[in-house]
What we know:
The protein is mainly alpha-helical and about 130 residues long. It has 6 helices and 2 strands, in the order H-H-H-H-H-H-E-E.
Amino acid sequence: MPAARALAASLAGGPAPGDHDPGHAPGTPWAKRRFHEAWSETAAAAGITALHFHDLRGTAVTMLAEAGCTVPEIATITGHSQAHAQRILDRYLARTRTLAESAIAKLDEHRRNQPERTPTLGQGRYSTSLTL
Length: 132
């Protein structure tokens, strides 16, 4: 899995994989229970009491969506099916100002790239004809 630049830079300066947890062999997958224990111990040591590991997934999904990622791209990062990724978006995606501003910027850009149109009389409110 590729890492964002900030994460890669942070990891580059830290301990080698496995150095932080003597009970975990480098290059081997974490057992679910051991990961949960390590997460809980680390969160408690940092004074974090109201955050669960899965809360980070919702934050990541929101950040990826705000960055303009598609559902297939988000599903690739989270490891879910596209349908499940969409359900996660439906549940976790905060309707933020950033998303609203992005949507309006896309609309403005789309309109800038359209040929100029003038109304055509007698063909209804939304009818237009191309001005050549």
